[in-house]
């Protein structure tokens, strides 16, 4: 039986949520080539609106921000029109939509972007990984280090993307400062060797994240702005150092972000419960926690332990468009087809059966 704590209502920002579940952001590579959300995406998110808070896949705020093929953008009128259809579909089913703003930084390849330029990053250090491109798997090239003056342009891109998300009818945005992408690259000393005001000390490495959060909150409201972090998560070639270094970096960052009174803090957590507890002590609003490999009976564990208010769901949400009903009734769950996770059509995307048709 799923813990009763999942079924209590919660107020998050401007939203009244009926339960404590949410949909975690997950890249699926089904947008049109130009980054406009496809009709398939409208169906996909609409199907899962019962999860209450839908946090979308990573969505680039600019051409430089794109890392992968067929990922959505939120910086052109066409993108806004496409996301408006998604927002309408989610709202018609009673859900709420937060668009995740994700700048891939160095985790990109020129063949995957509309302008085919060299990726940008805090420093000219390649991640040492490969990328799927239209011509096959290729090594990710060495990125170009952003000039100090260019960082203001990146902040402006996030601000514009947030405004565009609200124009599309989204309820808010989530700033992606996790999982090896640009903002996480600034936080990590092995990808940020800058000597200006955006590198060196923990305060400087955190600066761009705080400035983007402030700009987005100023643009659309702090209560419509969430942020995601992933302390010590070794994705994209990142290594944030020993435990105490990671704790110092993130305690500073979260403490500064707490002053902005954002709608929520979303933690991709890999096991340092002492650090997670310290976030909980200073964060003034909602905390969301997602962990790899949680079983069905562990979904509410962080809520029950008072680490979190909301439990974002990843793989279970992919294969079960009616996940909330299945959890409420202890019904069996569909299994994810890993072969259809990234790219393709409706197979493994919008064709998973609901209970009524299973």
UniProtKB/TrEMBL annotation:
Q: Which cofactor does it need?
A: FMN
Classification via InterPro entries: Aldolase_TIM, OxRdtase_FMN_N, Oye-like
Stretches assigned to the NADH:flavin oxidoreductase/NADH oxidase N-terminal domain: 6-333
Question: In Gene Ontology terms, what is one molecular function of this protein?
Answer: FMN binding
Single GO cellular component annotation?
cytosol
The UniProt keywords, alphabetically, are: Oxidoreductase
Region span, Disordered: 110-137
The record's comment on protein family reads: Belongs to the NADH:flavin oxidoreductase/NADH oxidase family.
Name listed for the protein in its UniProt record: 2,4-dienoyl-CoA reductase-like NADH-dependent reductase (Old Yellow Enzyme family)
Q: Please tell me the species this chain comes from.
A: Leucobacter exalbidus
Taxonomy-wise, where does this protein's organism fall, top ranks first?
Bacteria, Bacillati, Actinomycetota, Actinomycetes, Micrococcales
């Amino acid at each position: 039986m799923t813990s009763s704590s999942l079924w209590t209502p919660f107020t998050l920002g401007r939203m009244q949520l009926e339960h404590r579940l949410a949909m975690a952001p997950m890249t699926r590579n089904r947008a049109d080539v130009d980054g406009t959300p496809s009709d398939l995406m409208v169906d996909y998110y609409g199907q899962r609106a019962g999860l209450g808070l839908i946090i979308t896949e990573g969505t680039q705020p600019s051409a430089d921000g794109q890392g992968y093929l067929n990922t959505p953008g939120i910086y052109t009128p066409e993108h806004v029109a496409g996301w408006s259809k998604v927002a309408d579909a989610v709202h018609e089913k009673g859900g709420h939509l937060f668009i995740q703003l994700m700048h891939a930084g160095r985790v990109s390849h020129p063949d995957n972007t509309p302008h085919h330029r060299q990726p940008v990053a805090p420093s000219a250090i390649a991640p040492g990984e490969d990328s799927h491109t239209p011509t096959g798997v290729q090594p990710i090239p060495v990125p170009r280090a952003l000039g100090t003056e260019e960082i203001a342009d990146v902040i402006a891109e996030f601000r514009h993307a947030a405004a565009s998300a609200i124009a599309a009818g989204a309820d808010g945005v989530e700033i992606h400062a996790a999982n090896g992408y640009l903002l996480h690259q600034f936080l990590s000393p092995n990808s940020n060797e800058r000597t200006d005001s955006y590198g060196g000390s923990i305060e400087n490495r955190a600066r761009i994240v705080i400035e983007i959060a402030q700009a987005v909150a100023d643009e659309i409201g702090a209560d419509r702005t969430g942020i995601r972090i992933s302390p010590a998560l070794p994705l994209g070639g990142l290594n944030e150092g020993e435990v105490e270094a990671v704790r110092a970096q993130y305690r500073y960052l979260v403490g500064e972000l707490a002053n902005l009174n954002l709608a929520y803090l979303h933690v991709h957590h890999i096991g340092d419960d002492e650090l997670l507890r310290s976030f909980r002590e200073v964060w003034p609003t909602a905390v969301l926690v997602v962990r790899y490999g949680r079983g069905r009976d562990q979904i509410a564990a962080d809520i029950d332990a008072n680490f979190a208010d909301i439990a974002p769901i990843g793989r279970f949400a992919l294969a079960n468009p009616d996940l909330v009903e299945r959890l409420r009734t202890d019904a069996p769950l569909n299994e994810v087809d890993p072969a259809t996770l990234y790219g393709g059509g409706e197979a493994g995307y919008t064709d998973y059966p609901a209970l009524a048709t299973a």
